[in-house]
Write a structure and sequence with these properties.
The complex is a heterodimer of chains A (762) and B (55).
Chain A: H1 2-5, E1 31-33, E2 36-44, H2 49-61, E3 65-71, E4 76-82, H3 88-98, E5 101-104, H4 116-144, H5 151-172, H6 174-185, H7 192-212, H8 219-252, E6 257-261, E7 267-271, E8 280-283, E9 293-297, E10 299-303, H9 305-308, E11 314-317, E12 321-322, E13 327-328, E14 333-337, H10 345-360, H11 366-392, H12 396-410, H13 413-433, E15 436-438, H14 441-449, E16 452-455, H15 457-461, E17 467-468, H16 476-486, H17 492-501, E18 508-513, E19 517-523, E20 526-531, E21 549-555, E22 561-566, H18 573-582, E23 587-590, H19 595-605, E24 610-611, H20 616-628, E25 633-636, H21 643-648, E26 651-655, H22 660-665, E27 668-670, H23 676-711, H24 717-736
Parallel strand pairs in A: 16-23, 16-25, 23-24, 25-26, 26-27
Antiparallel strand pairs in A: 1-2, 2-4, 2-5, 3-4, 6-7, 6-8, 8-14, 9-12, 9-14, 10-11, 10-13, 15-27, 17-22, 18-19, 19-20, 20-21, 21-22
Helix pairs in contact in A: 2-3, 4-5, 4-8, 5-7, 5-8, 6-7, 7-8, 7-12, 8-13, 8-24, 11-12, 11-13, 11-23, 12-23, 13-23, 13-24, 14-23, 16-17, 18-23, 23-24
Chain B: H1 2-27, H2 34-40, H3 45-49
The chains are: A alpha+beta (762), B mainly alpha (55).
């Protein structure tokens, strides 16, 4: 059918994500009730209307399916079917055929699902907006009718304003009141304390003034203050929510399953967390070992690069120990579990990650630092104004109070409340369009502070799989014939040969010996062997340099030739490291691979600082060492072995192709094949920090002008309204300046990141 | 003067109508999938109902 012709998004906005990995069986994650079974999946790579129609069309054609609906903004697919009518594995494999990778949500993990807090803020924002617009309508009438309007009309206008403002401000102000109350109860003062105080005092005093027949009423100021602050609060919330959603999408990928064989030899799929020690687990090629175990049966090559950073494939046979996370590549293996998911290496890494994240949560954001300075200053200014008028000016309680409140209102926490979130929303939106996902607002602040980069090698600086080294003693013609054998094998080195040579004919009578190589007839009458030195019959094979991998190719009767492989650096690695150097950021290489390999790579990229053969704990130690020396370390890595050090670093980045746990641990996930995204992220982060500081400086300068006016009693409600909206708009415009530039088509690099939709900049 | 007695309630009523409409649409999930809503208009649903292939 037409679906199969072009896998993935038909618009080309996103590459196909399915197909390669073996489909996960989601049956342990199905929820059932009322004769209907439901499954929630996160789908990667869906971008356009074509995707919706492909996915929903295909699933709704399955008989028994009641409803399949894809939420394009969040990438969530909800499927519901009559109990027993649809095999849940069919859904995932169907999606994979269509070119979309899908992972089930663990219902246990996705309980608190809907964005209740965001809706609450939006409702408050709507109420504040309504109240502000209507009160402003009345206030402007009063201001422009100054001197002409009769007292009766003005009284009516004020009455209506009060009737709107009091309930609206009490409702819309709740997020601030609650937060201020919590802070005060804990003996702290946050930004919400002066905000709540200003709103409540302005409401209270205006009500009093209304009954006393006064003219200067601040009802409009109170709701306007709330309206602007709620915009900032909502933007900030969206940013955090999006980050949390992206993290949850990544976590969904870890809600994996295992195929457990019971005594009768029947296979049964269970969630990884339900695997018990002693269970027999079947690992097909393409599967990852879910828990630590011992190989019971089989002989296969595994890729342990995500676990150890070692780039060469390892061979596992009966009796060998397999660590959780190794990827089976060539043949079927049977694994006897020796640990549960909670006690496996993977879980140890997760715990290290959590420990690192806790240390990060102590980071104080710029906005909080500003608030800590602002709150006491504003309160003492207001108090000084009050006392000054009361004692020195002998102006009486009412006028003194009025002027003190004018100070509280005019110091305008609006600009301060918008200064940081507006910039961060614009900056992360711009990076998102460039294929870089920033998972929290303070990640940008931390990236801007970084003083040193630490890189992992395999998969980060390099492409992460062996590539054939061209030239040397092997001719193109010989290589072409070797490729005929290689096409018949799943061995990573064979794949590297095929990748170098391209598509072509297959050898005949192919026979593969596990741990040896492949033999077959490559041309009429010429049989040949491709494999290890021993397999082609030359014993040890003589000298091999320690750095590269090798395979031998021998045609019958001819001298065997050596094919050499290495893991080449990414095309722009050297340029990116140079660019970071230009920005005053030295780089260092930390690799779990053998020291000789690490040294060769460091040499090739011109890095003087490198360490090889380091285990995950060693990496974390090195990061701690650097931090103790006063460095703010930005760690870039892709392997599971990097995850703890990513979490322990000041700020962390990982490529979109990284291990899922690693992406979950990183602050920033970048797409694409190159490292230039890192340089762009650094640039945007530094610009964003400058903008935030500019905004703070502007707010400070504005206050320096406005406070004396207010304290002197020259501020009227009209001036307060103009000053407040003016400063908020200037701060927002300054943030929007960041949006220009870097506008590549959305989703170009975002294959793994679509879980988070692009934020519309403020 | 008398005009104000009509105009203010009318202005407020219209404002409340807008506010109510927004709160309703928020509750009804109109903002749950803005990207999807923008794209779904391009789908040929009627073709599918006729048994045709939307692709």
């Amino acid at each position: 059918m037409s679906d199969a012709a072009s896998p993935g998004c038909p618009s080309g906005l996103s590459p196909a994500t399915g197909g390669d990995a073996a489909a996960v069986d989601p049956s342990p994650f199905v929820r059932s009730g009322d004769g209907v079974e439901r499954l929630e999946l996160v789908v990667f790579g869906a971008k356009c209307a074509g995707c919706i129609s492909k996915i929903e069309g295909a699933l709704n054609r399955l008989s028994g399916m009641e409803e399949a609906r894809l939420n394009l903004s969040t990438g969530r697919l909800t499927a519901a079917w009559r109990a027993g009518a649809v095999d849940p594995k069919m859904i995932v494999s169907r999606l994979s055929e269509l070119g979309y990778r899908a992972a089930p949500f663990d219902p246990k993990a996705s309980e608190a699902d809907h964005d209740a807090e965001g809706r609450r803020l939006l409702r408050a924002l709507a109420v504040a907006g309504f109240a502000m617009a209507n009160i402003m309508l009345l206030s402007i009438s009063v201001w422009s009718g100054e001197g002409e309007m009769g007292a009766g009309t003005r009284g009516l206008m004020h009455l209506v304003s009060a009737l709107i403002a009091i309930p609206a401000a009490l409702y819309a102000g709740r997020p601030f009141f609650q937060s201020a109350y919590r802070a005060l109860r804990n003996g702290r003062a946050n930004m919400d304390v002066p905000i709540s105080l200003a709103v409540l005092l302005a409401l209270g005093l205006s009500t009093y003034e209304f009954f006393a027949g006064g003219e200067a009423l601040y009802f409009d100021a109170a709701v306007m203050l709330l309206f602007f602050l709620l915009i900032g609060r909502y933007l900030d919330h969206r940013l955090r929510w999006r980050a949390r959603e992206a993290a949850r999408d990544l976590l969904a990928l870890q809600a994996t399953t295992a195929t457990v064989m019971d005594a009768g030899g029947d296979a049964r799929v269970v969630a990884t967390r339900d695997v018990r020690p002693g269970d027999l687990i079947a690992l097909a090629p393409g599967d990852r070992a879910p828990v630590d175990g011992i190989i019971e049966e089989g002989d296969s090559l595994v890729d342990a690069s995500l676990v150890t950073g070692e780039s060469a494939p390892a061979r596992l046979r009966a009796g060998d120990v397999a660590r959780a996370g190794v990827l089976n590549q060539t043949a079927r293996l049977t694994l006897r579990a020796t640990a549960t998911a909670d006690t496996s290496l993977l879980a140890d890494l997760t715990r290290l990650i959590e420990a690192g994240e806790q240390s990060k949560s102590r980071y104080v954001r710029l906005a909080d630092k500003a608030a800590a300075l602002y709150v006491p200053v504003v309160h003492s200014l207001a108090a000084a104004t009050f006392l000054g008028w009361l004692i020195i000016g002998e102006a009486g309680l009412r006028v003194s109070m009025m002027n003190a409140i004018a100070v509280l209102i005019i110091t305008c926490p609006c600009a301060l409340g918008l200064a940081a979130p507006a910039v961060q929303v614009v900056a992360t939106g711009r990076l998102f369009r460039a294929g870089i996902l920033v998972k929290s607002g303070d990640a940008l602040e931390r990236l801007a502070e970084a003083t040193r980069f630490v890189f992992d090698k395999t998969g980060t600086l390099t492409i992460g799989r062996p590539a054939l080294r061209r030239g040397g003693d092997v001719g193109e013609e010989t290589l072409g014939r070797a490729a005929r054998l290689a096409r018949a094998s799943k061995h990573p080195l064979s794949r590297a040969i095929v990748e170098a040579v391209g598509a072509g004919p297959l050898a005949e009578d192919v026979n593969e010996t596990p741990g040896g190589g492949v033999e077959g007839v490559v041309a009429s009458g010429v049989s040949a062997r491709l494999g290890s030195a021993a397999f082609v019959g030359i014993g040890d094979g003589g000298t091999v340099d320690d750095v590269s991998l090798e395979a031998w190719y021998a045609e019958e009767g001819a001298t065997p030739v050596r094919l050499r492989f290495d893991d080449p650096p990414r095309a722009d690695a050297e340029a990116a490291l140079g660019a970071l150097g230009d920005r005053g950021l030295p780089s260092e290489l930390l690799s779990g691979d053998r020291p000789a390999v690490a040294a060769a790579m460091a040499d090739r990229l011109g890095l003087t600082d490198w360490r090889g053969g380091i285990d995950p704990a060693g990496k974390t130690r090195r990061i701690k060492e650097l931090s103790a020396a006063g460095e703010k370390v930005a760690m870039v890595g892709d392997g599971l072995n990097d995850a703890p050090s990513l979490a322990g670093a000041h700020v962390s980045l990982s490529p979109g192709g990284a291990a899922d746990a690693t992406q979950a641990a990183a602050d920033i996930v970048y797409g694409g094949d190159g490292l230039s995204a890192i340089v762009e992220a650094v640039d945007v982060a530094r610009t964003a920090k400058r903008r935030v500081l500019q905004n703070f400086a502007f707010a400070a300068a504005y206050n320096a002008c406005a406070v004396p006016l207010a304290a002197a009693g020259h501020v009227t409600p009209l001036i307060a309204a103009l000053a407040m909206s003016g400063s908020s708009i200037i701060v927002t415009l300054n943030a929007l300046r960041l949006a220009g530039g870097g506008k590549r088509p959305r989703g170009e690099n975002g294959a793994r990141m679509q879980g988070a939709p692009a934020e519309a900049p403020a | 003067m008398n005009a104000i007695l009509f105009l203010i309630p009318i202005a407020l009523g219209l404002g409340l109508l807008g506010l109510g409409a927004f709160l309703w649409s928020l509750r009804a999930g109109q903002y749950d999938d803005p990207d999807g809503a923008a794209q779904r208009i391009l789908l040929d649903d009627d073709l599918e109902e006729n048994g045709g292939r939307p692709e």
